[in-house]
Design a protein that fits this description.
The structure is a single chain. By secondary structure, the protein is mostly helical. The protein has twelve helices and four strands. α4 crosses α5. The longest helix is centred in the N-terminal third of the chain and has 24 residues.
């Protein structure tokens, strides 16, 4: 296998010059390098100042040896390192999203970086990236002093969220009921209802996710990109509304029977019926949460 490659091409000549003057080849390394690597860097440092103008130095080292005496693998491509880093951030986003949606992180709670990063086992930098994502989704908000808190909704905001949901999802139901091949749509939505039934014997988290999955499927199947975009932009607020009045009322809104009514209305092929049933579905949910 070929030697490892250190690419320092992004560095400007001025930066190379400063780095070289500050590098002391006689100093002990600050950490334990694999055999040969530190020596290679020492030799390379003496050549950095000789780079003229805008030259882009590239140092090839054939002495990258691991502690077992075998030639080490070359440095991983940046893209692969990025995938690992992004995956960790996405895991943190998913965990925090669930904690907010289920009420484990209660509305209005101050989010302390040191506590959360320790709990999740991630760096504070990765945590901040995850929290920024949740801010964009509408799950987390900053107070007047810049401190992040779980978003807090009031009854008026709950009614407004469901009013917009009713408009979006009733349009989706109307479009779906008008499809000549709506049997396929009905089959997909019926499967989602069965998943909701199964989730009721598992966890609150699974119940919430299967409920959202049903409504998300309705929007997606309607095949209108603007409609889908608008619903997705509202999803964070939808998540915040679920646990507004506690577990019992949340579970009451997620019963499979209520959702089966929408499926049957779509299957009927009557657009007005599908629209009205969906609107009433939303109205009943908001009454359950706010009255």
């Amino acid at each position: 296998m070929g030697g490892g490659l250190i690419d320092i091409s992004p560095l400007r000549p001025a930066e190379l010059s400063v780095s070289s003057r500050q590098f002391d080849p006689s100093a002990e390394p600050c950490c334990k390098w694999p055999a040969g690597v530190f020596e290679c860097l020492v030799k390379a440092s003496s050549r950095l100042l000789s780079c003229a103008g805008g030259a882009r130095p590239r140092i090839v080292c054939s002495e990258f040896i691991d502690t077992q005496g075998d030639r080490a693998m070359p440095s991983s491509p940046v893209a692969l390192s990025g995938l690992s880093r992004n995956n960790l951030r996405e895991q943190a986003v998913a965990a925090l999203r669930v904690a907010v949606t289920t009420g484990e992180l209660t509305q209005g709670k101050h989010l302390v970086e040191t506590e959360l990063s320790e709990t999740l086992g991630i760096s504070r930098g990765t945590l901040r990236e995850a929290l920024r994502q949740l801010q964009q989704e509408g799950l987390v908000t900053a107070d007047d002093r810049g401190h992040l808190r779980v978003r807090h909704l009031n009854a008026r905001e709950i009614r407004e969220i469901f009013e917009v949901r009713a408009a979006l999802e009733s349009l989706a139901a109307e479009r779906l009921s008008s499809l000549p091949d709506r049997a396929a749509v009905v089959n997909v939505l019926s499967t989602k209802v069965l998943s909701m039934e199964s989730a009721r014997t598992h966890s609150l988290e699974e119940s919430i996710e299967t409920d959202l999955d049903f409504h998300r499927a309705m929007i997606t199947l309607a095949d209108n990109s603007t409609l889908t975009h608008q619903w997705q932009s509202l999803e964070g607020s939808i998540r915040m509304s679920i646990m507004f009045s506690g577990v019992d009322r949340a579970v009451g809104n997620m019963t499979p029977g209520r959702h089966q009514e929408i499926v049957e209305a779509i299957e009927s092929g009557h657009a007005a019926t599908a629209r009205n049933v969906t609107i009433e579905h939303m109205n009943a949910a908001v009454r359950n949460l706010t009255e």
